[in-house]
Amino acid sequence: MTRDDWVLFAPMRMEARALRRGLSPGAPLCRTGRGLARAGRAAARHSGAGALAVAGIAGGLTTALRPGDVVVATEVRRADRPDEPAVPCPAAPMVAAALRRRGLTVHLGPVVTSRRLVDGPVRARLAATGALATDTESAALLAGAAGRPVICVRVVADVPPERLYRPLTWKRVRAALRTLPKVAPVLVEWAAATSAGEVVLAAPRSFCAGVERAISAVEQALARHGPPVYVRKQIVHNTHVIADLQRRGAVFVDELTEIPDGAPTVFSAHGVAPAVRAAAADRGLPVIDATCPLVTKVHSEARRFAGRGNTVLLIGHAGHEETEGTLGEAPGRIALVESVSDAERVEVADPDRVSYLVQTTLAADEVARVLDVLRRRFPALTGPSSDDICYATTNRQAALREVAAVSDVVLVLGSANSSNSRRLVEVTERGGTPAYLVDAVDAIDLRWLAGARTIGVTAGASAPPRLVDEAVAALAGLGVDGIREYTTHTEDVHFTLPKEIRTP
Known about the structure:
Shape: elongated
CATH superfamily of the largest domain: Nucleoside phosphorylase domain
Radius of gyration: 28 Å
Helix content: 25-40%
Distance between the termini: 61 Å
């Protein structure tokens, strides 16, 4: 499905021909003619178009570019009117990602429009403003957008220190023109995605108290001890959090054997088995325990149930750090149950002495189905005094169910190894709404949004709030009429920092 009230502007005949090769017959391609004046007249003729796209070749302004590289404009501005507001292109990260998936080398940054071709000192001056490429039409074509979705994609023909278009370097121009047919289908995908009318945000979303505590523990350890600070496993399951802490001096390892003697050591939010604690104590490592208090509760319950002589059935997922740590509390006394089929097969030594525990990041409906089977098979089954599934997991799933019910598609911000984020996708799909887990805005596939009127957005408990902000800003660039928040719970939970770094 494509939007039928958009237009694709191509300034020069050779650009239009190249783009046409990548478009289906009847696509709304308009050759405008070269220069600001012609561009302005073409824009006026299409003032009723619902979305505006510009594509063609351009001159590169920095040595980071190569002929044939693609620049997707984050904004378009006039070189001769520095005080005039630039035209923003918020959807640029999604378009850039779509182009990269087609094997193109893509850069994101400003495109600047000049009255004439620039070279030498003028080109250097424009580069100093942060612009990546220059043309002679885009700003005039998009100047009257007035809130409509806009996108500008330019393929680089010449770059410094080569002279810009003079003399005309046909070899480089031909290379740029060969790229334009690959650009055209992505612009069609973008146009189809501009059907969105509303973004609905689920609340609560993003960081929970346990995640905030764990991240703060590493930050405080770095401030107190200086880098490096070693963290066993990922402190939380999010690639952006990990990368940020790595830049600040945190070193993430899989095993204690990778940590030098005497180095500050942080245990992740997911908890560790007693054997890991013992190994750290034997080496005299200064440990900061960032285990989420709700995970600590499950560990305590595992010890209590096993201490009674019960077989403990842990409902969870194999390989997850949290389940590994809980299983280690009573080796041989705890059995992992991952699914309904596992629940049907699991055997216990004494059916009258059996308990269950639950990984904190599971979906409530998923757990309920497993528990139904276990209770049928083991009528004496006992469980924790309060729900093991953490409040943040439950709250985020409940909010998303409400949002998914009014959405055509749902985007969940979170990393692939985040259990609670994956559960949000599964909960949505079980309700009949398509859902996609994305690590950041550049992982959003425009094709998912084609024809969608309402887009639901949430984030897993380990995903930074800024990822949602960036995604919403990009979606707003598709021309959505409104952004609203649907709140089901207000969270006011706060956990104190680990005692090892707590301020007296």
